[in-house]
Structures are given as C-alpha cells and as structure tokens.
Design a protein that fits this description.
Helix content is 68%, strand content 17%. By secondary structure, it is α+β, with helices and mostly antiparallel strands. The N and C termini lie far apart (51 Å).
C-alpha cells in the first residue's frame, strides 16, 4: 500500500514511517505544495528499482548501437527496409502456422 503525505507530516512522523516502510507495511509518496516530489520505499524496493533501471539501460544501449550503425543511412530507406523485412517475417509465421494446422 502506498500512502501520500505532505512533507510536513513526514517530518513529524519520520521515525514511525521509516519503521513501517522497513516492515513493508507501506510506501510513502511525499508531496510538497500538492506536488509529488519524493518517496520513502524499502531497501528491497530500491534494489528492484535499481535493477530495473540497469536492465532498461542495457536494452536502450542496444538500440543506441543500432542507431549508430545506421547513422549514415537515409531514415526513409531504413524504415522501408524494416517494414519489408517485418512483413516477410510475419508472412513466414502465417505460412508456418497454416502448415501446422493442415497437418
């Protein structure tokens, strides 16, 4: 469960909130002037967030490498070729599924 609190409330109850977060009873979304600005989360949640960030960065690095490899190519040509290849792969998949059904 996540509870939303004003920063002034968090300051007043910080020790108790940290204990509740530690026991996985809550997460706290901290608001300042009605705007969410921070959160209190368990170390397990933070570790999970860090892992997800690393995985995301790894996936995007692959895209960055691909983009760099085609930096000198005409974007329109690249898009047309990508669409052509995608269409071929989908057609092969359909043919394969149809052949499996006929058996």
């Amino acid at each position: 469960m996540t509870q939303t609190m004003k920063i002034s409330e968090v300051k007043t109850h910080l020790n108790a909130l940290v204990n509740r977060v530690y026991r996985d009873e809550t997460r706290v979304l901290v608001e300042k002037s009605g705007i969410p600005v921070a959160a209190l989360v368990s170390t397990a949640d933070l570790a999970r967030l860090d892992r997800l960030d690393r995985e995301r960065d790894e996936r995007f690095s692959v895209l960055d490498e691909l983009q760099a490899a085609f930096a000198d190519e005409d974007p329109g040509r690249t898009e047309r070729e990508t669409n052509r290849i995608t269409s071929e792969i989908r057609a092969e998949g359909r043919s394969s599924r149809e052949a499996t059904i006929e058996r």
